[in-house]
Amino acid sequence: MIDPRLKVLQMVSHHGTVTAAAAALNYTPSAVSYQLRQLADELGTELVIQSGRGIKLTAAARTVLRHAELLHAQVERAYAELAATAEQPSGSFALCGFSTAATRLLPPAAAALREHYPQVQVRVIEAEPARCFDLLLSGDADLALVINTADLPPSADERFEQQQLLDDPLDLVVPVGHRLAERSRVSLADVADEQWIVGRPGSTYHQLVRAACMSAGFSPNVAHYADEWDTGTALVAHHFGIILVPRLARLHDWPVVRIPLRGEPAPARRILAATRLGGSSHPLAETALAAITTTAQTLLPAP
């Protein structure tokens, strides 16, 4: 319903470079540049100018983007109204989320959509939080579950609707026989001097663990890097260190002990649901969110 070249301009604005926008859109950089030139010629104004080795959006481009965001939001509301009045909505609907969400929360939501809307093609995409917002912007996903981190778009970003969904508490995982293994609860201060196993620098998990430790007054002594819970748990089982694991994450049968953390507030990762602006009222989004909430209440019952 809207010129797709406006989406290209949005992605260039979001990423700051043609190359990054092309990667997010699965285009070549030359295809992105060509579409920008086409749009500029049609509008009769410059949209980007060279700035050193990169590019900079012009004031005209900012004006176009402001109106494009309003148009996209209105289109999302139109799709939502059309779906609400249809006897049996069709088309496609894509859910995306980080690894634990894609394992524990999204499959039940996809199953609920398949049951309620059999003519809709439902798709699940596992992706890191920052990538999820790319998928929303490009139209490749319609609902995203993300972990709230500092590098996400702010809640005031008018391109998206973001709502807090749940808090997923962090548990400490130690090897059997560890000095704290018999405790019913521990604090992070109790393990400040331990060797830690965390995700690779730049990953959401890495940020999560460092933020939790820093809030407890120390910087973790990182001994090993592991992005997968099973890898980290295996290292713990062999006495290479300790890890923090979200309660939603399942652990395999390693000789380890999982201990809840105490604190005010207790360390947790905050999970958000995000859609494009205007998209949260779509019946499929509402059905998916209801299923996700029900699943989360089952997996994380209130204390």
UniProtKB/TrEMBL annotation:
Record key words, sorted: DNA-binding, Transcription, Transcription regulation
Domain HTH lysR-type: 1-58
PROSITE patterns per record: HTH_LYSR
SUPFAM superfamilies xref list: Periplasmic binding protein-like II (SSF53850), Winged helix' DNA-binding domain (SSF46785)
InterPro entries: LysR_HTH_N, LysR_subst-bd, WH-like_DNA-bd_sf, WH_DNA-bd_sf
Top-level taxonomic group: Bacteria
Keyword presence, NADP: no
Keyword Zinc attributed: no
Listed Pfam families: HTH_1, LysR_substrate
Similarity comment: Belongs to the LysR transcriptional regulatory family.
Name of the molecule in the record: LysR family transcriptional regulator
